[in-house]
Amino acid sequence: MVVGGQGKMLVTSVGSNPVSFKEAQLDSRISKPHTYAEIFSLCFALLIVIVLSLRFLSQKHDYHDDSGSSQIKDEVTVQGVLKIFERILFSSRGNISILASFLAVAMIGIQHGMPFVISISLAYWNEKKVTTEDVEPQNLSACGTMGLVTVIFVDISGGLIEASGSSEDAVDSMRQHLRTMRDAVMTFKMAGVDIKLVSGDDDGLPALTAIASELGVYTADSTDHEAVEGQEIRNLSDGELKRRANQIKVMANFHPKDKISMVQCLKKKGHVVACYEGSKARDEMVLQVADVGISDKNSTEMTKKSSDIIISSYRSFKSLIPIWKYGRWAYYNIQKFIQLQLTVMVSSLVITSVATMALGESPIALIQLIWVNLITSILGGLMLITEPESRELDTLLKAAGNRNEPVVTNSMRVYILTQILYQSSVLLVFLFKGQSIPGINRRVRKAIIFNSFALCQVFNYGNAMDLEKNWSNGGVKQKGFLLVAVGTALGVQVLVAEIWVRLNLLQWGFCFLITALSWGLGLAIKVLSPFMPN
Questions:
Q1: Which positions ≥6 away from 49 have C-beta within 8 Å?
Q2: What is the DSSP code (8-state) at residue 513?
Q3: Given CB 3.0 to 4.6 Å as the disulfide criterion, which of 160, 217, 274, 490 pairs with 149?
Q4: Is 49 helix (H, G, I), strand (E, B) or coil?
Q5: Are 251 and 199 in contact (CB under 8 A)?
Q6: Rounded to whole angstroms, what are the CA distances from 11 to 8, 14, 18, 19, 283?
Q7: What is the pLDDT of residues 209-258, one digit of tens each?
Q8: Cβ of 391: how many Cβ atoms within 10 Å?
């Protein structure tokens, strides 16, 4: 046995079922809408370039600035370079509009800010709410992924109950521990999380079923509960194992390969699986296969390195409940944040792309898009670290569903789509027809579009955070804080807009009318969302 030093290893072969680095289930779900958004935005960018190139080649428009001179013929001086950057950031016309539009699409489409803000929020939950003396998350996604778990394997190899020969105090302590663990098991079961008891010892199935019955994991006379030994699992075909996997609650004399087979089978059935394994080195492979690997401080170093969460001992099993609760809350907030980001991304993409292809210019400059994205990212970040009331947390105590369910639900799709259609149609119609309104010149028209678009996103944040609800007890302070954040964002937006172009009260009223209709539409979708199919 090698216990220290350095060396090299030559791998000549691997087994038939090698285990590779696993991607956290939470990361996998979040990456999908992000990837789709990138593809969508890049396709739009390519379409813009093609359309503008065709317009340029056909010479239907002369791409000159207001002075009539070519935009890219300045001498290479410091002043000339500054003018080019000024045109890119603040202007959206002429040949420069091709570059500006493409940069805007890339900036909004490839949302590096979205995963960054989510990572910061997960670090907050891990540090402030999950990490205790009994629990140590080993990666950022541990808490969030735990919130998606639908099945938990508990390995009691080595003995959960070793009362023989012990003192009366030790026996009483063990019974108290069993009652605590039973309460934790019942909490998980009521929330729809299935608990399965497994052992690799040779104590036999009757002894294990007795413990499982005491913990509330197994009911002998239930047709939905099965207790099996490892040899029986090895003799089952893949189809038979998949059919019985949900009913199997107790597993005795299980080898690591048997555990891996069960975990893989349940994952194929759509479950998100957590495994709390013992202290043996051979448990490492099981922890790697599981979506969430859990070990304790008495485990080997290799087992700990393969774990996502480390708890102090079996006695700390109940500490997994707050991890699961806050994981559910974190995932719920991430869904709302993604809804907010996708709305602003796609709506801005449609508005700038259609306007650029139709008119050769965008009504919203690149720096303005960056500003709106900054507002939504800051507000979204506050939303992600908002702590739930106990009442709100209890409403989330239900299983997360199938592992293949997308992070964007049907109700979220409807909300995003209606907001995109409303914002894009109203603002584009105003862009194309707004010049017929007395007192509305080109500069004012673009300012109204920018203000209305930015204000719509701020009010969308209010909808996402349910600011109209839970103004009672502990919710007053929290909701008040969020309301102050929204008010501050509105005030800063008005100030920035006035610096850009001064609008009169009637024009500001028109901006807020567009925003109010967007907010009301969002509220209507929220009211109808419980009646929408999952």
A1: 98, 102
A2: H
A3: 274
A4: helix
A5: yes
A6: 10, 8, 13, 15, 22
A7: 988 998 989 888 888 898 999 888 889 898 999 999 999 999 998 888 99
A8: 12
Assigned token pair, 252: 């005795």
Edge-to-edge strand ranges of the sheet holding 151-155: 135-137, 309-311, 292-296, 273-276, 151-155, 194-198, 248-252, 226-229
Mean pLDDT of 400-411: 82
Contact call for residues 22 and 267 (beta carbons, < 8 A): no
**Phi and psi at residue 110, to the nearest 5°:** -90, 85
- Identify the pLDDT of residue 52: 65
Distance CA 495, CA 145 (A): 41
pTM of the model: 0.79
Judge contact between 72 and 96, C-beta under 8 A. yes
The closest alpha carbon to 311, from 327, 300, 295, belongs to 295
Q: Which residues contact 9 (CB under 8 A, 6 or more apart)?
A: none
d(CA 299, CA 310): 9
CA distances from 432 to 23, 48, 90, 357, 427 (A): 47, 18, 20, 13, 9
11 versus 60: the higher-pLDDT residue is 11
Instruction: Kindly report the three-state secondary structure assignment for every residue of 479-499.
Output: HHHHHHHHHHHHHHHHHHHHH
Which phi and psi angles does 197 have, rounded to 5°? -100, 130
Amino acid 285: pLDDT: 86
Are the C-beta atoms of 233 and 262 separated by less than 8 Å? yes
Indicate the burial class of 279 (C-beta count within 10 angstroms; 0-12, 13-18, 19 or more): middle
Which helix or strand (DSSP H or E) is residue 228 part of?
strand 226-229
